[in-house]
TrEMBL record:
InterPro entries linked to this entry: DHFR-like_dom_sf, RibDG_C
MF terms (GO), sorted A to Z: 5-amino-6-(5-phosphoribosylamino)uracil reductase activity
Record-linked Gene3D superfamilies: Dihydrofolate Reductase, subunit A
Protein name: Dihydrofolate reductase
Provenance organism: Orlajensenia leifsoniae
Length: 196
């Protein structure tokens, strides 16, 4: 099975969005360089960010997101973001009325079931869990292998937390990777497993 990774861009004080679900400057680093990150030509980053991010994005087989993010993005118009093969949506509700059943989106109730479904779909590729409530639930359930974050030099003061409402201590190893890009610091940690 592939590695399960929480991923997202965040402020230096740990927020992935403000109180109104707006990311503010959290994704500005995707426009600050001269190296195209994807085929659109819109996203351009520093060479260091490209080397780090492109390799990671290419390893992702499935993304897990919550229904809130799915609704905010209008379901990415039925096309998974960043060339990902499938999206597993954690929700207590069914797919929206009129949703194309052939779209590679899977609506699953509960984080454990979502990770299990994502691992089936991903095979040996990475299962990415969106930072926020769903990422925090996966971490609290002991289902996460790594934490990756793109730390942006802004302080929000309040908003949506990177780990959601997690209220227990979780130890990480490392960092295993620290990459300085233009307007961003890329970090990767392994989640420390409790002794058996």
């Amino acid at each position: 099975m592939g590695t399960v990774v929480i991923y997202g861009s965040m402020s230096v004080d740990g927020f992935i969005a403000d109180e109104n679900d707006q990311p503010g400057p959290l994704f500005d680093w995707l426009l600050t360089g001269d190296v195209p990150l994807d085929d659109s030509g819109v996203l351009k980053v520093s060479q260091a960010s490209y080397d780090h991010t492109r390799a990671y994005w290419d390893s992702i087989g499935v993304t897990i997101a919550g229904r809130h993010v799915f609704d905010l993005t209008d379901g990415w118009d039925g096309t998974p973001p960043s060339g990902i093969d499938h999206v597993v949506v954690v929700t207590h509700r069914p797919a929206p009325d009129g949703w194309d059943p052939s779209a590679p989106f899977h609506f699953v109730d509960g984080i454990e079931a979502a990770v299990a479904r994502a691992q089936e779909l991903a095979g040996d590729r990475v299962v990415e869990v969106a930072a926020g409530e769903v990422g925090g639930q996966a971490l609290a359930a002991g289902l996460v292998d790594e934490v990756r974050m793109d730390v942006v030099p802004v302080v929000f003061g309040s908003g949506k937390r990177y780990f959601g409402s997690v209220n227990a201590q979780h130890l990480l190893e490392g960092p295993d990777e620290v990459v300085q890009g233009s307007g961003v610091l890329h970090l990767r940690y392994r989640v420390r497993r409790p002794p058996l």
